[in-house]
Specification:
alpha+beta, NADH Oxidase, 4-stranded antiparallel sheet, 6 helices, 4 strands, binds flavin mononucleotide
């Protein structure tokens, strides 16, 4: 697909089939993440690709309940309801079968550029996954999820450098149902300034 078309038609998907994503596709999605722009050329992010639906479900339940679900005050999506829209959804990862976990250095985690570096990785990952026919959803609350001691133990079990912590999740899987249509953009969000 042409790049702008891909960017415009990608949507956040929250209903997944019980069908695993092929390993070669997951590898490409990770590759797209690590090629994202990064502040100061540090390449400071690390990406864990978790390809274990049972464990993803366990972490997702902690993720869904680690913060107040009613903070938003508006509907996120009617077609693809989020945990805020539908309180009966158990996992904040919506039954996805693979999960990208983008990590940053703990000490630098509050720096705007460091936060941004994790999210540009996530954006590269969702675009690559969409191009491969794999659906996705960026999900937050990583810090709160891993404050749970049992969840935190997983990080050392996986061998994540102790100086790193997860900052953003990327749910990955095959969509269950129809892919939602392109979403209209709010007016007045752009300006074009040019010299004569
Ligand atoms: C920084 C960021 C955090 C997000 N966190 C969540 C989340 O925790 N749970 C969720 O279901 N969707 C999350 N999303 C997805 C947004 O809800 C979604 O992008 C937005 O509603 C627009 O829909 P679209 O991606 O289909 O265009 C997040 C997106 C971004 C960019």
């Amino acid at each position: 697909m042409e790049l702008l078309e891909l960017i415009k038609t990608r949507r956040s998907i929250r209903k997944y089939l019980d069908k695993r994503v092929e390993k070669d596709k997951l590898e490409k999605i990770v590759e797209a993440g690590i090629y994202a722009p990064n502040p100061g050329g540090r390449q400071g992010t690390k990406i864990i690709m978790l390809d274990n639906p049972k464990l993803i479900e366990e972490i997702g339940i902690v993720n869904a309940n680690c913060e107040n679900r009613n903070w938003c005050g508006r509907v996120v999506s009617n077609e693809q309801p989020s945990i805020i829209d539908d309180l009966s959804i158990k996992s904040g990862f919506y039954g996805c079968t693979a999960l990208g976990i983008v990590c940053v250095p703990k000490e630098r985690r509050t720096l705007v550029n460091v936060i941004g570096s994790a999210f540009v990785c996530a954006e590269n990952m969702v675009l690559e996954s969409y191009d491969l026919g794999v659906s996705s959803c960026i999900v937050g609350r990583a810090e709160a999820t891993f404050e749970n001691p049992q969840m935190n133990e997983l990080l050392s079990k996986w061998g994540l450098d102790d100086e790193y912590m997860p900052l953003v999740f990327v749910c990955l899987g095959y969509i269950n149902g129809e892919y939602p249509k392109i979403k209209a953009r709010n007016e007045g969000r752009t300006m074009y300034i040019a010299e004569e």
